Amino acid sequence: MHCTKMFALALCIAPLLFGCEPKVSSTPANKKVSDAADKIKDAAEATTDAAQAKFDEYASAMNKRLDELNAKLDDLKDRAAQAEGEAKVELERKLEQAKAKRDAAAEKLDELRESGAERWEKVKAAMEAAIDDLSKAFE
After folding, report:
1. Please, what is the end-to-end C-alpha distance for the chain in angstroms?
2. Is residue 44 predicted with pLDDT exceeding 90?
3. How far apart are CA 43 and CA 131, in angstroms?
4. Greatest extent of the chain over all pairs of C-alpha atoms, in Å
5. Mean pLDDT of all residues in the chain?
């Protein structure tokens, strides 16, 4: 979120640095303004790149975690298929609950991906809660 604020600030300041003059003269003051504008542009690009990298890393980690939990879901499905009697009923109930939680976590992961690097922090807490809820289904 801090990165987004920095980027927005840079975008607001940039027009002020360039001014309204259509032609920039080669005076030392204008050179400094031009250099400052270039630095702001570079900083904004670096901030955007850093935010994108952080988003990509987080989305990848959540995808990996969901894959691990899907493997546990498959194991639970196998155990339920082999069980008999009351144990089978209990495992099937647990399996249905886990499937519902897996679907919810997958939906949150889709929301995370759709949110993009600019807004992913808002979806992060809901994503983590869904993954935690799914993890608890296997305890």
Report:
1. 34
2. no
3. 34
4. 88
5. 83
Q: Name the residue type at position 58.
A: Y
Q: Tokens standing for 9?
A: 């600030």
Confidence of residue 77 (pLDDT cuts 50, 70, 90): very high
Q: Residue ranges per domain, the chain?
A: 2-18+26-136
**Ramachandran area for residue 19 (φ above 0: left; ψ -120 to 50: alpha; else beta):** left
- Residues 63/109, Cβ–Cβ less than 8 Å: yes
d(CA 73, CA 20) in angstroms, rounded, equals 62
Mean pLDDT along residues 75-91 = 93
Which residues lie closer than 8 Å to 126 by C-beta, 6 or more apart? 108, 111
Please give the structure tokens belonging to residue 28: 């030392």
